[in-house]
């Protein structure tokens, strides 16, 4: 497999590990970017972008980043907090009156951002096309009753996060959530990141598909068992209501919508660039960065059925847990995306890391491919 791009010679071992991913015949395409102190030291890509293996992954190939997108939405919201247009601890219903229904009148933006609001799923099964109907989804969430007492415990909101935070962004910023993220983050930093992709960019997007035969770890198997056997469980509804969530990744409608929980499109460079800008203060004042990265939720996750730890819209490191560590330092923060893509920062090393793949792995939190790369980066840094 020919590896394209650049690496500082101190990181030759990282390039070797990246190349070794392709020893697995199922691995199709991937890219890796590592910045330290704002300097790009690794920028690699390889493999194929299409489903038939005919089109090579390019320097500017885009891929669906899934939940890596959530932290971009959180940062846009925190910028609005800094501007006085949002308040972390004010009821969301002040901005969105319909949201007060069914016992949600006291839910705050902080609770939405830290997965404590009790709204990871919708009980009533929606039609597949509702996925692309912003009004239908926000109306359903405004009417929904929390699954537990808001503020007591946490449960990851894989998809609803995007409509909940997205609607708050829309109302506070006067534009679509993807437009807000573009204007506030992507454009000022020159990041190739899109939440709501223009049709003209479609030729650059890698086709995403699942790897076969790997059942993942115990956490992944537990989640799968619930989803296969309990159709009305909160966990199942979180990932499969509307039922089109799991099958839409490569569809034009999915690419076009501004769903800031799950459909950002970008590359490893965009992820690393975003985290580098968080570390050097270009996106948030120190006080707001501290809010983003301090522990808000920790323990058994009511949705993911495994132990998670969150700040505001970012996942915090759990060094003692194999499936929940970024494999660098204990202060690392960022967000994995379904199937293996990941972006994170390690403030102690001034490290910003982005890895993307179009071969989806089965893991719930961290993907071993990214962990192995990150551990090798750490070793190279000494």
Name its key features:
382 residues; alpha+beta; Beta-lactamase; three-stranded antiparallel beta sheet; 32% helix; globular
Structural features, described:
With 382 residues, this protein is of the alpha+beta class. It has one domain: Beta-lactamase (3-Layer(aba) Sandwich), CATH 3.40.710. The chain has 12 helices and 14 strands. The protein has helices at residues 12-21, 69-82, 109-113, 134-143, 160-173, 177-189, 218-229, 234-240, 252-256, 268-279, 286-293, 368-381, and strands at residues 4-7, 29-36, 39-47, 63-64, 194-195, 209-210, 264-266, 297-300, 307-310, 315-316, 333-336, 342-346, 351-357, 359-360. The strands form 4 sheets. A 7-stranded antiparallel beta sheet has the order 1-3-2-13-12-11-10, with helices on both faces. Strands 4-7-5 form a 3-stranded antiparallel beta sheet. It has a two-stranded parallel ribbon with strand order 6-14. Helix 4 (134-143) packs across helix 5 (160-173). The protein is globular and about 55 Å long. The mean pLDDT is 96. GO terms for molecular function: hydrolase activity. Pfam families: Beta-lactamase. Residues 19-374 form the Beta-lactamase-related domain.
List the helices and strands and how they pair.
Layout: E1 4-7, H1 12-21, E2 29-36, E3 39-47, E4 63-64, H2 69-82, H3 109-113, H4 134-143, H5 160-173, H6 177-189, E5 194-195, E6 209-210, H7 218-229, H8 234-240, H9 252-256, E7 264-266, H10 268-279, H11 286-293, E8 297-300, E9 307-310, E10 315-316, E11 333-336, E12 342-346, E13 351-357, E14 359-360, H12 368-381
Parallel strand pairs: 6-14
Antiparallel strand pairs: 1-3, 2-3, 2-13, 4-7, 5-7, 8-9, 10-11, 11-12, 12-13
Helix pairs in contact: 1-12, 2-5, 2-6, 4-5, 7-8
């Amino acid at each position: 497999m020919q590896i394209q791009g650049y690496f500082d010679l101190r990181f030759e071992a990282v390039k070797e590990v990246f190349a070794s991913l392709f020893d697995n015949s199922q691995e199709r395409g991937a890219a890796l970017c590592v910045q330290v102190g704002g300097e790009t030291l690794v920028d690699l890509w390889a493999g194929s972008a299409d489903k038939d293996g005919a089109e090579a992954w390019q320097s500017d190939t885009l891929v669906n980043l899934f939940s890596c997108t959530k932290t971009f939405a959180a940062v846009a919201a925190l910028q609005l907090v800094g501007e006085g247009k949002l308040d972390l601890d004010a009821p969301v219903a002040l901005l969105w009156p319909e949201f007060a229904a069914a016992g949600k009148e006291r839910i705050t933006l902080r609770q939405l951002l830290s997965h404590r609001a009790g709204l990871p799923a919708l009980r009533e099964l929606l039609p597949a096309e509702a996925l692309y109907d912003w009004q239908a989804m926000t109306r359903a969430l405004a009417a929904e009753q929390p699954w537990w007492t808001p503020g007591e415990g946490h449960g990851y909101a894989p998809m609803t996060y995007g409509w909940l935070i997205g609607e708050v962004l829309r109302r506070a910023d006067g534009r679509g959530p993807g437009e807000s993220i573009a204007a506030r983050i992507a454009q000022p930093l020159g990041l190739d990141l899109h939440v709501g992709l223009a049709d003209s960019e479609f030729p650059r997007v890698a086709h995403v598909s699942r790897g076969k035969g790997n059942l993942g770890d115990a956490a992944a198997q537990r989640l799968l068992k619930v989803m296969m056997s309990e159709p009305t469980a909160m966990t199942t509804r979180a990932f499969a209501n509307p039922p089109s969530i799991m099958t839409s990744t490569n569809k034009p409608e999915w690419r076009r919508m501004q769903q800031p929980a799950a459909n950002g499109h970008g590359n490893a460079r965009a992820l690393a660039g975003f985290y580098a800008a968080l570390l050097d203060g270009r996106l948030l004042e120190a006080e707001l960065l501290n809010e983003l990265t301090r522990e808000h939720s920790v323990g058994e996750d009511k949705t993911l059925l495994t132990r998670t730890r969150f700040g505001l819209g970012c996942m915090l490191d759990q060094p003692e847990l194999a499936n929940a560590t970024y494999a660098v330092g204990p202060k690392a923060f960022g967000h994995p995306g379904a199937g293996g893509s990941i972006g994170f920062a390690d403030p102690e090393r001034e490290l910003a890391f982005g890895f993307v793949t179009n071969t989806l792995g089965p893991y719930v939190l961290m993907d071993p491919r990214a962990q192995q790369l990150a551990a090798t980066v750490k070793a190279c840094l000494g």
